[in-house]
Amino acid sequence: MTLFQSFTGARFPGLCLSVIKICCLAILATSSHTSRANEIEELSVTDTSGEYRLRINVVVNAPVEYVYKVITDYTHVDRINPTITNVEILPSGYGGVIRVQNLSKQCIGPFCFDLVWAGDIVETGDRDLEITTIPEFSDFVSGSATWQIRSQGGRTRVIYESRLRPSFFIPPVIGGIIIRKLIKDDTLDTFRRIESQAIIMLDLDKK
Fold first, then answer.
1. What is the pLDDT of residues 84-111, one digit of tens each?
2. Which helix or strand (DSSP H or E) is residue 161 part of?
3. Helix (H/G/I), strand (E/B), else coil: 126
4. CA 191 to CA 55: how far, in whole Å?
5. 3-class SS shares of the chain: helix, strand, coil, % to 5
6. Which of 16, 57, 143, 174 could form a Cys-Cys staple with 133, CB 3.0–4.6 A?
7. Alpha-carbon gap, residue 104 to 96, rounded angstroms
8. CATH of the domain at 95
9. Sign of torsion, CA 57 59 64 67?
10. Per the structure, how many domains does the chain have?
11. What CA–CA distance (Å, rounded) separates 88 from 61?
């Protein structure tokens, strides 16, 4: 087995895998280039005892119906998060619940690692979403998220809040700094892509 295969073809247990992940995340965090979506009124990323919390309040320059379509297009979530390599819609066993499992890949040169996330999504009234992480199908011990998607004239206000606790070890202090920066940069990039995809859909409907 080559060095490349050892990183991409096997999942290392415990600390070894975690150190590989943190090293890759460190490079990602320092080399990330993102452009901000318009009118970000609030963005905070915090961590307490290994649980990471995110809140963003942003006005997207696209109509609400298109923004909502982009966010709820679960089978094409890679359009707003290009690290996602595979999406499966799983049976949830509950009415009104959409169960999604995503596989994402992070690579720095020959070093790659996979992350699996699965969650139950409930689309409530007024274009709200409630999401609960499923630990037994994920690389996360627990997690939840909410989306509030509201019309603001011809634009859309989105308030997103989440909490997520990884199952893999993250070194204290420096690990938390790296993860928080990565979450922030990825969030900004995701909202830029949401806006871009919504505008594309709007332009297509105008033709």
1. 999 999 998 888 999 999 998 865 456 6
2. strand 155-166
3. helix
4. 13
5. 35, 40, 25
6. 143
7. 26
8. 3.30.530.20
9. negative
10. 1
11. 30
Kindly report the three-state secondary structure assignment for every residue of 36-96: CCCCEEEEEEEEECCEEEEEEEEEECCCHHHHHHHHCCHHHHHHCCCCEEEEEEECCCCCC
SS3 3: helix
What is the distance, to the nearest Å, from the Cα of residue 73 to the centroid of all Cα atoms in its chain? Answer: 14
Distance CA(12)–CA(2), nearest Å, equals 15
- The residue whose two tokens read 């995503």 is 102
Token pair 């993860």: residue: 179
> CA 147 to CA 159: how far, in whole Å?
6
Other CB atoms closer than 10 Å to residue 106's CB: what's the count? 16
Q: How far apart are CA 129 and CA 58, in angstroms?
A: 16
Host domain of residue 103: 3-206
Q: Is 207 helix (H, G, I), strand (E, B) or coil?
A: coil
- The number of residues in the chain equals 207
What is the percent of the chain where pLDDT is above 90? 59
